[in-house]
Design brief:
Glutamate Dehydrogenase, Chain A, domain 3, 448 residues, Rossmann fold, 3 domains, 13 strands, globular, binds NADPH dihydro-nicotinamide-adenine-dinucleotide phosphate, alpha/beta, five-stranded parallel β-sheet
Length: 448
């Protein structure tokens, strides 16, 4: 646990106030453990109450979303937008539509987002939002009516200079289109208020690919610098089959790896010959189907119920790209026992604290989510720039900027880790590097 008195005191306050928010506490604890050497070196942070302010969102918006389904029945969901920290830019972070969305989940995501956005080097504050709406099995018309109802309230709280949401789980191009349309209709304003937009109406090339590609650029750079190694010839296990997983698979294959798994919340497929990505794209992106269908279509592939089983597959590199806490202590031990030496996180907080301890004991190269998956929000930041300029960059230009941002995240994390006495520790380095910029801005702007 903590040794620094300031960190200990603030964490105790968070536990007391938010004891019923387990995911949020988990995220704060992980960050605070890394920040002990940082606050010890910077007494001005304690004098300015930086940690106390960092863990308290600037604003929490929680609202009713009422809509009518195809059968004419009234449905009521909960909507959230947590505007966590605007010290270095407008609030920025995705919207998640999933039945597991609670205030605790949105707060953990928003808190992580503060440091992630800081790491990208772009001027973006931290925020996150979403709803417990489950789009699975809903028609396009129902998804549209839900998005319109959601935006009817959200539009009061966001704006291109205030808060710029994006997608996350179950919020992709279709949902962003409906949300953007409703914002435009109510506000009579055509602005870059959302990112992840369609290319026809202000979206950026390479945004769809950005999180998955960025994850691989980050992993490749960390492997190069820390292990003098690469993706070439490696066997890779990837969980999920959504936006992040699909484009992580694409880039890992391009960099010479063999990706052997894909999963969804029902189960996973193992393809010893290497995942055929066109089949996964057809099932998930075109038909919104289940990953089970892959084994029906590809000879030699196996389907197993229980998505957690994906971590029993032998691999050199694991890239979790589904959801929070998907790798627990047992799965981490299995990965290590099977020879996995690299875990870089595409999903947000996919490893439990016990799993992270297993990686650390086994000297696994561990790339934490807020650094490894920052490519998505980085290109969202580039989409905001292009919207402001009223122009668009080519795919190659944007992709090159993404690659250079991911490489600088590795370099900045390693430099911070060294400065605070933990050379080579990408987790401590990411937390410290992301935090210092935000903390300095908070001190400079006074007590707010
Ligand atoms: P998608 O909705 O496109 O895909 C999510 C994938 O994860 C699906 O295969 C889904 O399966 C699976 N999944 C979701 N919940 C669970 C669960 N409880 N157990 C097992 N599998 C589950 O989302 P994204 O790919 O966009 O997001 C994946 C992760 O990456 C999230 O943690 C998100 O926060 C993070 N992320 C996303 C970014 C982005 O740009 N999109 C940016 C940075 C991070 P099923 O179809 O069965 O639900």
């Amino acid at each position: 646990m903590f040794t620094n008195e300031y960190v200990k005191r603030v964490y105790a306050q968070v536990e007391q106030r938010d004891g019923n928010q387990p995911e949020f506490l988990q995220a704060v604890k992980e960050v605070f453990e890394s920040l002990e050497p940082v606050v010890a070196k910077h007494p001005e942070y304690e004098a300015n109450g930086v940690l106390e302010r960092l863990v308290e969102p600037e604003r929490v918006v929680k609202f009713r979303v009422a809509w009518v389904d195809d059968s004419g029945a009234v449905q009521v969901n909960r909507g959230y937008r947590i505007q966590f920290n605007s010290a270095i830019g407008p609030y920025k972070g995705g919207l998640r539509f999933h039945p597991t969305v609670t205030e605790s989940v949105v707060k953990f995501l928003g808190f992580e987002q503060i440091l992630k956005n800081s790491l990208t080097t772009l001027p973006m504050g931290g925020g996150k939002g979403g709803s417990d709406f489950n789009p699975k099995g809903r028609s396009d018309a129902e998804v549209m009516r839900f998005c319109q109802a959601f935006m009817t309230e959200l539009q009061r709280h966001i704006g291109q200079f205030t808060d710029v949401p994006a997608g996350d789980i179950n919020v992709g191009g279709r949902e962003i289109g409906y949300l953007f349309g409703q914002y435009k209709r109510i506000r009579d304003e055509y602005s870059g208020v959302l990112t992840g937009k369609g290319l026809e109406f202000g979206g950026s090339l390479a945004r769809t690919e950005a999180t998955g590609y960025g994850l691989c650029y980050y992993t490749a750079e960390a492997l190069r610098v820390l292990r003098n190694d690469s993706f070439k010839g490696k066997t890779v296990a990837i969980s999920g089959s959504g936006n992040v997983a699909v484009f992580a698979t694409e880039k890992a294959q391009e960099l010479g790896a063999k990706v052997v798994t894909a999963s969804d919340s029902n189960g996973y497929v193992y393809d010893p010959n290497g995942i055929q990505l066109d089949v996964v794209k057809d099932i998930k992106l075109n038909n919104r189907g289940r990953i089970k269908e892959y084994a029906d279509r590809v000879p030699g592939a196996e389907y197993h119920e229980d998505c957690k089983g994906v971590w029993t597959v032998k691999c050199d590199i694991a890239l979790p790209c589904a959801t929070q806490n998907e790798i627990d202590e047992e799965s981490a031990k299995t990965l290590v026992a099977n020879g996995c030496t690299v875990v870089c996180e595409g999903a947000n907080m996919p490893s439990t604290p016990e799993a992270i301890a297993v990686y650390q004991d086994a000297n696994v190269l561990y790339g934490p989510a807020k650094a490894a998956n920052a490519g998505g929000v980085a290109v969202s930041g580039l989409e905001m720039s292009q919207n402001s300029y009223r122009l668009s960059w080519t795919f190659e230009e944007t992709d090159a900027k993404l690659k250079s941002i991911m490489e600088s995240i590795v370099a900045n994390s390693l430099a911070a880790a060294k400065e605070y006495g933990h050379e080579g520790d990408l987790m401590l380095g990411a937390n410290a590097a992301g935090f210092v910029k935000v903390a300095n801005a908070m001190v400079a702007q006074g007590i707010l």
